[in-house]
Structures are given as structure tokens and as C-alpha cells.
Input
Amino acid sequence: MIQKPTPPDWSDAPVVENYTDFSREAFWGAYHWQAAVGLYRSGLHKTKGDVLDIGCGPGWLTFILKDMSPEAFCCGLDLSEEMVEAAQTIAQQKQYTDLRFVQGDAGQLPFPDNSFDLVTSCFSFRLWDDQIRGLQEAYRVVRPGGLVYIADISGDVPLEQREQILDAAPQSGRTFLKLAMEMGIPEAEVRELATKTGIPVWECRIGGMGGYLPTQREVLDWVGEGFPLRHLYSLVQGKDWARELGKYWFHLYLEKP
Ligand SMILES: C[S@@+](CC[C@H](N)C(=O)[O-])C[C@H]1O[C@@H](n2cnc3c(N)ncnc32)[C@H](O)[C@@H]1O
Output
């Protein structure tokens, strides 16, 4: 029987500290892409609204969402109290306001129905105890007309490529990345999970940049509305290992009519 890998202990202070540094360095571009795609696809680039980031860790994606949408109220939620504290510390240092971090579980979100316009999550889905429940919870708390956008590494990174990615990645992040690839949920299974939620409107895209090609109609329309395509590309320059890994990210979008 194949043994399931044990995830990092996200409550352990050295793990929190290492991950905070590594993730900022490694995924800065990816967070910007996720934030931009989430805001533009949900229409929040035009209106002010409420945003939730599930499994926020040290909060980099939450902060970027806030930076890109200064009028929005942004909330990060994480199971680990220590991660929440790390995010709160950064928020205080940077003097962010209208931003909150709370401890909580993706499977039992501490919010009433229809509380947010955009619910997003990065690099956390594979860790949830019950993904179907987590998706249903995310859907429950998003308002009608809103969007749930979940991104994570899939389990489809070919074995021979995993070693190459790890060799090229920063030393400090290799354990996180190795475990993430081992624990990643294959795309076919993500689709099966989404189907089992009973949520009627969903879409699963694969690849970097939210699963979009820069020449796609939607992206061109967003560019017309101010989507910072060039800037986003500049942020992922020179990180070949991250771009390679990006080919195997899944992007699951749930729309609430
Ligand atoms: C790899 S980190 C990702 C953090 C951040 N989203 C990022 O992209 O940098 C995974 C995070 O998911 C959190 N997590 C795991 N299971 C969770 C759950 N059931 N509910 C909420 N957060 C969870 C962990 O505590 C950890 O902070």
C-alpha cells in the first residue's frame, strides 16, 4: 500500500517562518495572477466588494487582493492560529486597514450565507479534510452573482519532471514543493469532486495564469478594462521552475447564479 505523505505542520513556528519567506519569493507572481484573474473574472475590479481567501497562510494573496482592490474588504482565514498571527503581524507592519485575518476551517466557515463577492484559495485545497464540503462551504458564503476561485498544484506533475523542478527551486522550499506534488489532487479527481458538490456552474482550467492564454477573448476584454497583463508577465520572468510547475496548477471556478 502506498503511504500518504504527511503534510507540513502549519502550526510549527519554524515551518511558518520558512514558508512565509519561501512563498513570497517563489509565488509572488502567481499570487498577482490569481488576484487579478479573480478580481476581473468576478467583476470586482469595477465595484467594491468583500473578498475571502481560504487557507491564506501568511496572507500574501490576501494583501495583493487588497492592493489591487483598495476599496474591498479582504479577509484571510486559516486553520493554523500561528499562520493567522504571522499574517496579522505583516498586516500591522504594512499598516493595512479594512483587512482581517481569522482562524477557521475551510470545512466549516464562520460566516453567514452570501457574505462575500469573491472567495478564493491558493495552494491549500489538497490539505482540506473534505474537499466536497470545503467547496460547498465556499459556495455557501459567496453571494449570488459572485465567484469562487480555487487554485492548487494538481497531482499530475510527471514523476521525471518533479526532480527537475525541485533541483531548480530554492532550497528553502523543496520540502514544501515535494509534499505538494505528492499530495496534489489529479485534475480528473478535481472534476469528480466538483461534480459531486452538486454545484451547477463550474469550470476547471489547467495551466499557469489562471488557466488562461494571453490571447483569449476574456483576457483581451480584461486588458481593455485595465488588466495589467504586461506587469503580470514581468513578475513571472526568470522563474523557469515555477512556470514549469504552473503548467500543472488547476484553477477551479464556481459561479453562483
Ligand atoms: C501551502 S499553505 C498556503 C498558504 C497560502 N494560501 C499561500 O498560497 O501561500 C497551506 C495553508 O492551508 C492551511 N489549511 C490547511 N487545511 C486547512 C483548512 N481545512 N482550512 C483552512 N486552512 C487550511 C494551512 O494551515 C496552511 O496555512
Q: What stands out?
A: Residues 10, 23, 54-57, 60-61, 78-80, 83, 105-107, 122-124, 127-129 surround S-adenosylmethionine (CB under 6 Å). The mean pLDDT is 95.
